[in-house]
């Protein structure tokens, strides 16, 4: 398949996609699987967005972070994954320069936003468990919404400056594998800002979270051994916070597992030659994290399953449905 594009000097650049080496049946199956993954990603995250936005009982600071993560995952499924999967199946870049620019900017923004959202979730869980009384007084839904909005705005501005400074918008190269052209200084800055710093925060805070969880578990065992000791009144909220920390810890672990191969590639890509096919695989793994998150919520959050049932049965359109109990 040939693709032709005019560059800035008026000359035309022609790119040829290799002939398919697989049968038509396998080719169709690949597209069906790709469509299923995209549909699962979009619909799963849309259900999370609807649930958190609609039901008043879910309007909590932590859920605002889950909502932000779901929005970024939803946008990945809607705008990034279809293009990336077509690129992988066809083994070449089939789109024009404008779509390439949009793809790169969107990928950088949503990947960075997802990482920072997970870092904020880790900070939120640590604060809630380490000082629950101060957390209840200091952190509100409106405060968390402001923090999330600032995070999106700062990362959008950062990515815009990143590509303008590196003059990526003036490039005539068609394929994303060659399109990302950051110099060594900006590559290091981007690695630190988007990966090293937030991932360090995530790992450190979740180690501290699980230390706190272990202390709480030990305290509960001691209460069971000595039933004469009265259980503190805040024991039930603490148990709830521990459960939330464990579930979100699974989300964080899966997230890091999907993300590490891509950033290892980013570190080694310039030192050793890595085939474009390998790059595509690690990139798709990053995107698949957006598909996995709703599955984790469905497995571990009963409230999410109840919200899905109410949404799919159209009960959310009933009067006062927003006030229904889902917890």
From TrEMBL:
<keyword id="KW-0675">Receptor</keyword>
<dbReference type="InterPro" id="IPR050569">
    <property type="entry name" value="TAAR"/>
</dbReference>
<feature type="transmembrane region" description="Helical">
    <location>
        <begin position="28"/>
        <end position="53"/>
    </location>
</feature>
<feature type="domain" description="G-protein coupled receptors family 1 profile">
    <location>
        <begin position="44"/>
        <end position="297"/>
    </location>
</feature>
<keyword id="KW-0812">Transmembrane</keyword>
<dbReference type="Pfam" id="PF00001">
    <property type="entry name" value="7tm_1"/>
</dbReference>
<keyword id="KW-0472">Membrane</keyword>
<keyword id="KW-1003">Cell membrane</keyword>
<feature type="transmembrane region" description="Helical">
    <location>
        <begin position="65"/>
        <end position="89"/>
    </location>
</feature>
<feature type="transmembrane region" description="Helical">
    <location>
        <begin position="247"/>
        <end position="264"/>
    </location>
</feature>
<dbReference type="GO" id="GO:0005886">
    <property type="term" value="C:plasma membrane"/>
</dbReference>
<dbReference type="InterPro" id="IPR000276">
    <property type="entry name" value="GPCR_Rhodpsn"/>
</dbReference>
<feature type="transmembrane region" description="Helical">
    <location>
        <begin position="191"/>
        <end position="213"/>
    </location>
</feature>
<feature type="transmembrane region" description="Helical">
    <location>
        <begin position="95"/>
        <end position="122"/>
    </location>
</feature>
<keyword id="KW-0807">Transducer</keyword>
<keyword id="KW-0297">G-protein coupled receptor</keyword>
<dbReference type="GO" id="GO:0001594">
    <property type="term" value="F:trace-amine receptor activity"/>
</dbReference>
<dbReference type="InterPro" id="IPR017452">
    <property type="entry name" value="GPCR_Rhodpsn_7TM"/>
</dbReference>
<comment type="similarity">
    <text>Belongs to the G-protein coupled receptor 1 family.</text>
</comment>
<feature type="transmembrane region" description="Helical">
    <location>
        <begin position="134"/>
        <end position="158"/>
    </location>
</feature>
<keyword id="KW-1133">Transmembrane helix</keyword>
<feature type="transmembrane region" description="Helical">
    <location>
        <begin position="284"/>
        <end position="304"/>
    </location>
</feature>
<protein>
    <recommendedName>
        <fullName>G-protein coupled receptors family 1 profile domain-containing protein</fullName>
    </recommendedName>
</protein>
């Amino acid at each position: 398949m040939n693709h032709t594009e005019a560059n800035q000097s008026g000359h035309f650049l022609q790119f040829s996609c290799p002939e398919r080496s697989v049968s038509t049946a396998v080719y169709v199956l690949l597209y069906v699987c790709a469509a299923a993954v995209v549909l699962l990603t979009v619909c799963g995250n849309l259900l999370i967005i609807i649930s958190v936005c609609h039901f008043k009982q879910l309007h909590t600071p932590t859920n605002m972070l889950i909502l932000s993560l779901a929005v970024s995952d939803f946008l990945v499924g809607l705008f990034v994954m279809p293009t990336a999967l077509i690129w992988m199946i066809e083994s070449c870049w089939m789109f024009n320069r404008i779509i390439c620019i949009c793809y790169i900017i969107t990928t950088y923004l949503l990947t960075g936003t997802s990482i920072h959202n997970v870092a904020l979730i880790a900070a939120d869980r640590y604060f809630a468990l380490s000082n629950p009384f101060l957390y209840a007084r200091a952190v509100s839904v409106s405060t968390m919404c402001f923090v999330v909005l600032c995070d999106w705005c700062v990362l959008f501005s950062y990515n815009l400056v990143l590509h303008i400074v590196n003059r990526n918008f003036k490039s005539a190269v068609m394929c994303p594998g060659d399109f990302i052209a950051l110099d060594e200084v900006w590559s290091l800055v981007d690695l630190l800002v988007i990966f090293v710093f937030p991932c360090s925060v995530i790992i450190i805070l979740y180690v501290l979270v699980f230390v706190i969880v272990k202390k709480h578990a030990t305290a509960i065992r001691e209460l069971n051994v000595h039933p004469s000791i009265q259980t503190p009144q805040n024991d039930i909220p603490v148990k709830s916070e521990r459960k939330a920390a464990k579930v979100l810890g699974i989300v964080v672990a899966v997230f890091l597992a999907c993300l590490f191969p891509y950033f290892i590639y980013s570190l080694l890509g310039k030192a050793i030659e890595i085939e474009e096919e390998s790059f595509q695989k690690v990139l798709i793994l990053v995107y698949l994290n957006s598909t996995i998150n709703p599955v984790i919520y469905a497995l571990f959050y009963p409230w999410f399953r109840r919200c899905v049932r109410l949404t799919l049965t159209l009960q959310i359109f009933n009067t006062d449905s927003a006030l229904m109990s889902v917890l």
